[in-house]
Structures are given as C-alpha cells and as structure tokens.
Write a structure and sequence with these properties.
Length: 420
Amino acid sequence: MDKLVIFGGRPLNGEVRVSGAKNSVLPILAATLLTDEPCVIKNAPYLRDTNTMLRILRSLGKNAEFSNDKIHVTTRESDKFIADYRLVSTMRASFCVLGPLLGKLKKAKVSYPGGCVIGIRPVDLHLKGIEALGAEVKIESGYVNTQAKNLKGNHIYLGGEFGSSVLATDNVMMAATLAKGKTIIEAAACEPEVTDLANFLVKMGAKIKGQGSPRIEIEGVKQLHGAEYSIIPDRIEAGTFMLAAAITKGQITIKGVIWEHLLALIDKLEQAGVKIKKIDGKLIVNGKRRLKPVNATTLPYPGFPTDLQAQFMTLMAVTPGASIISEKIYPDRFMHIAELNRMGANIKREGPHAIVQGVKLLSGAPLMASDLRASAALVLAGLVARGKTEISRIYHLDRGYENLEVKLNKLGAKIHREKE
Ligand code: UD1
C-alpha cells in the first residue's frame, strides 16, 4: 500500500486543469448497458473507481478500455444481468448498473451495497423507484433480485429523509428510458452530474426533459443507440484546489472548470475573505488575505456539497475564530475530525455539527485516511502544517482524484508517494 509524504508550509501558485467528473463518468459508463451499440466517453478521469466500473462492465458482457482520456465501450455478450458481490462491494456507485440492466434486459441481480465509513447509506429510494415502474424486487442472499415483464412509466416521488438521492435518480431515470409511456420523477436530484447523465441518455436517443430541476420527465422509447459524449469537469476536484489556494495563502488559476457548479463554495470562500475571479472556463483564487471564519451546512445541490465538507473544515481549522459546520446529508461524515485534532486542530463534534475553533498552526503528523474526501482534507492539512505529514491508506484518494500529488507538486507543493 502507498502512503503520501507531505512537507507543508509552501504557498501554492500557478495553473491547474481539472479532470472529468468522477460522479458523472460512473453512471454514464453504467448507462452504456442500455445499448448494444458502441459508445465513446471522452474527458474520462483515470481513477481507481473508473477502473472498477470498467471491470463491472466487462463482467456484464462489455469490452471497455481506456485510450488516453477516452473510454471505448463495445458489446461482447448482451444477456448478462448479474453484478457480482466482489466487484460491487468495492464501490457503492456500482449499484447504478441496476437501472440500465433492468431497463434493457427486464431483469437484474445486483449485490446489495454495504455501508461505509460515512454512514449506513440505504438504497430504499432506488428500490421504491424501480418498483413504481412495475419491477418486482426481492432481496435474496445479499443480492437485489429484480425483474419485470414490462416496465411502465409512472409518477414517482423520490424524496427521502435527507432530501433527493443522486444515484437513485440516476437508476430510476435510466430504467425509465426504456419503459412504456411517461415517467415523472419528483424530488429528483439536481446535481450537475445527474444532468450530465441525462444529456448522455438524450444523445443515446432517450426523451428526457427537466434535468437539473426537481421534476424530470422521461418519455420511454423502444431502444437506445450508441453515442459519443464528453464528461463535465469535476466540481469537487476544482473545489479542492480552490481550498488549497485559500489554505496555503497562494493563488491558483483553475482551468477547465464550470464555475456555475461551484456557487455555494464560492459564496462561502468570498465571505471568508478569499478573492475569486470568475472567467469563462476559469477561476482565479487568491487566498493571500487574512481570512475570517464562516459557518457552512451541507445540502443537496445547489447547496454546499457534502463532498467538500471535510476540505472546508480543514480551512476553518486554521482560520482564527469559531465556526460551525453542519452535515445534513451524511450526519456521521466526520471521520476527519480526529485526525485533524491530532495535528493540533480544535474541533468538537456535537451530533451532526462540528464546532471548529480555528488555531494558528497545525503540525505535521502520521495520519490515516478513512474515506475519499476525508483523505483530501488531510492532504490540505498536510500542505499547511509545519513539518512532515505522512498519510497512510491513500488508495482512497486514488479512487477519486486523478494525479493529485502530481498536480499539487506543479503548483509548488512538496509531496511524494512511498510504499509502506
Ligand atoms: C452521490 C455521490 C457522492 C455524494 C452524494 C451526495 C456518486 C457516485 N456519488 O452518492 O459522492 O456524496 O451523492 O451528494 O454520484 N438515501 C436514502 N435512501 C436511498 C438513497 C439515499 O435515504 O435509497 C440518503 C443517503 O443516505 C444520504 C442522502 O440520501 O443521506 C443522499 O445520498 P445520495 O444522493 O443517494 O448519495 P449517492 O447517490 O450514493
């Protein structure tokens, strides 16, 4: 296993380009199961999670290969409908093969995903949605076993206790593209990655309206065809670089970004005193001024993203004064607090809230990464800390950030990878 060694205390300056969005490429690859024709996915990020999805597609009868930042998907066998536990258990997002398999083959058997360190993460909304389309669902031996003679469009309310669900919206939308008649999803997730998936489905011949709003309408069609499509930039990666500029008191130009996807973070950073210039396809983030603390609460899009909560907390941990960070999507997503406190941060957890008392300085320490975004938060902490920080179990980072240490080193960081 690899670890990252970071020598902190260097301001980051320069330009960086963000990769394609992880949360787009995974469901979009799953959507290729809706057709037997070839598909080409461009601007695909080379990530551990992308490779896991390619392995799942191959196990489901596809040929799927990277060439540079493109993925070519063709069909070898078109009747495979079982997504195996060993593959699905390594990545929750693989559950989004359920909708396309059911849509195309009218049956699917997909391993029931387990929980993870950020919480229990149920799939009740996914199952409710596909049942509303007429599928029969059974949970048997750890698998979700589902089939339907015919899928029929329906008017479905998909809101849950914590608001909308990204992958449940994706799953139901994909199944509905090949259902008979019209499906309306109310309380649909509005995340840009859901819109990206819908746009890809439209390129495949699906009839979808309202993507990006809480009401998505899908008029079922008989079949979908192959398509070529370019993935949107990763707003979470872009946000992580924005926070890297702010925390190291540097200036970073982030290229290839759609800044409209980052308005909640931009708003918080501006309130904190970070200067941000928004140009078409570019953000210039200047963190050289003295910052002040601001509160943040995670919410479904366009609210503050839970996937940037840990990284934002790290910035507040070194911003003198008090702030409260509340988690409304995953109330247990606070694994990073203990590690940040080991570096000298002063953060207390009270249920779904973290009370952060900003300190002047963090000091480098050996740390353990627990999940993807918490790992990114520890990297930010290492960048600003005095001395040496070693982060173990960084395979989490490789799941969702393409060449993170290479990109950071180009901006002036001092990071290297070592075998443990
Ligand atoms: C997606 C993202 C993940 C992000 C999350 C929230 C991908 C691959 N992953 O995950 O990075 O952190 O959105 O923005 O796109 N819920 C239920 N029942 C369900 C499904 C979800 O109660 O059937 C709850 C979840 O526990 C959570 C909330 O709904 O509290 C939102 O989760 P959801 O949007 O489904 O997350 P994912 O789609 O799994």
